Structures are given as C-alpha cells and as structure tokens.
Amino acid sequence: MGEPAYRAAQIAWWVYKKLATSFEEMTDLPQSLRQKLAEVASLSGLTPIDDKISADGQTRKVLFRLDDGRTIESSLMLYEKTSLSRERRTVCVSTQVGCPVGCPFCATGQQGFERNLRPGEIIEQVLYFMRLVSAEQLSVEAATDPARRPVTNVVFMGMGEPLANYEAVWQSIEILNSKHGLGLGARQITISTVGLIPQISRLVGESIHVELAISLHAANDALRNKLVPINKKYPLSQLIPACREYFKKTGRRPTFEYALFQGVNDSVEHARELSCLLEGMNCQVNLIAGNPTACKEFTPSPMKRVLAFQKNLKDSGVSSTVRVSKGVDIDAGCGQLRSRWIRDQ
Predict the structure, then answer these.
(1) CATH number for 168
(2) What element of type H or E holds 96?
C-alpha cells in the first residue's frame, strides 16, 4: 500500500494487544489508511452460530461459520491453579474443515475432509476467545501482561490434522509466539498429530520448538492400523524413533495421547505393550477415557479400567497422567458439536 513500515507494528498492536474488531478503532492510523484496510481486509471472518457452555462453566465450545459457508469448532477450557500447575485459559483450535485421517472413533474423522484453514482463520479462533475473556473477566490491558493474558495456552487439537496443513499452521504459530503478535511462549503452544513423520522431522529444524503431542491410542501396528489409519503409511517402527529424535534435538519431551475405549485398547496387555514401546524414552502418556460418538463400537472405558491401565504403566516406570474430561455435557469432544449441527440441518 506504500505506507511506512511502522504502520504494520501499529496495526499488529491494535489486533493482538488491544483486540480490535474493526480498523475504525485504530485511531492512531490516518483515516485514509483505515478506509483502505477496510476495503481489502477483515478482522472478523468467523461468525459464531452455536455456543455451548458446560454446567461447571469451565468449558465453552463454539461452532463458527467461515466466509465460504463451511463450519469449524473451537473450545475454551479453564483450569484452576493447583499445587502442580498454574491457572490456565487454553484455546483448542481447528486447522482444517473436517479431517483427512478418518479415525473411526473420532467425530471429525467421520465428517470427511473439505479444505485447509488459512492462517488468519486459525488465529482468529484464538482472538475470538481472547476478546470474550477480556470482555467478561479481564480488562483489555491485561492482554499485555503474561500473567493475566486472556489466553495462556493454545493447543492445535481441534478439527483436522495440523501437520497436514503445515504452512498455515506454522505461520499461525509464528504469530502466536511473536512479540508483535500474542507473545505466547513456545511451551504454551502444543501441536497434536497422528504422526506425519516428514513433518515431525521438519519441526525439528524450526526456530520455535513447540510442545509435541502424538495421538497414539495403540501400541501395536495391527490395532493402530484400525484406530489411526495413517499408521499403515507411518508405522510405529518409524514413528517412535522420530519422537525420540524430536526430544534429542529440541529438548521437548513428547506427550503420547491415549484415548481408552472399553474392550478395544484398555486391557492390562495393552498397557504392557505400551510400556514396552516407550521403554527408556523421556516422555509423558496422557490417558483419557474416549469421547462417546455415534459409533457404538467405541465406548469410553470406565474410570476403574483407566486407573488400572495407569497403574500398570507406573509399575513399568512410564510416567502418565489421567486427563480430566471437560465439556462432556456439551459434546465438547473434537467434531461432536459440528456433527450434531450437520445432522440437524
């Protein structure tokens, strides 16, 4: 546009620090520039069409319509301060409309794949909840204070496979991390992947080393081929070494997500297989009872079996936590709100 370079910093300050929703709010920009910006760009490409809040008030799930009419969903999860962790306000973002992986237990996986999200569509999911929290709980000025920032963590665990949309996801991470953007530390950003090995190797070479979570769900290829079909292309014999290499090169200890389904992958033998697979590896296993979906083959494991599974891992020297399910009463699991919306149309 032929404007001085410092105007970019001004605009970024309004968008990411003041959480502006229109260019007209950017009062230190010339009126002519504000008008030109409004003609070629938008700060509100997402339209909320459904909004659910859990009974405990700790989880909020929003279904958005994109500018082409397609829909995605995002979540805000609130975690109170404990003796082991600080207070967190975590946004879970989508990176694709639908998902190409097709995991049979996942609501998003059953929707098919429509398209990748653009960087702006990813970032705006975070901005939406930052504006929401600022309006309801905090002053906008708190966005510049890391201890009181409206959003403290961002996880790429919503709809889609983040590493299948690598360029857009990485651009959004650079904005999340930048001092001119949201200023989130690398440890406050997590990418969850089913295990696209070339992209994991590419992450190793990036300048920002984010947290890495692997959607594992099984410790042998036969079962994982069924639960996570991409395993046929990138089997465990390739995936686990790639994760070891990620830790070696970045110092970031990988987390292995393991959703437990009754009678499918939650037996003592399955726990022993997992312990053997991860033997000697500096990692964390995140156990969670699977989300209920329309597929009756996959029902969440009862907590008794989850805890028995965890005990077996502990006895084998594998570190694990049991993740508390949040937002079950509002279908907050990946893709569930969108699936219901599609079904009701």
Answers:
(1) 3.20.20.70
(2) strand 96-98
Domain check: are 207 and 286 in the same one?
A: yes
Chunk the chain into consecutive blocks of 10 residues (it has 345) and report each block's average pLDDT, rounded to whole numbers: 94 95 96 96 92 89 95 92 79 96 88 94 96 72 58 96 98 96 96 98 97 98 97 98 97 97 96 97 94 78 95 96 68 61 66
Contacts of 138 (CB under 8 A, 6+ apart): 148, 150
121 is catalytic: no
- Structural domain of residue 117, as residue ranges? 44-344
Number of domains the chain is built from: 2
Q: Are residues 121 and 96 in the same domain?
A: yes
Cβ proximity of 95 and 122 under 8 Å? yes
Read off the amino acid at residue 199.
Q
pTM of the complete model: 0.90
Concerning whether 269 is annotated as a catalytic residue, the answer is no
**Is the separation of the CB atoms in 122 and 14 below 8 Å?**
no
Q: Do 29 and 85 fall within a single domain?
A: no
Please tell me which residue in 3, 39, 73, 167 is annotated as part of the active site: 73
Q: What CATH number is associated with residue 35?
A: 1.10.150.530
Q: By C-alpha distance, which of 42, 74, 43 is closest to 60?
A: 74
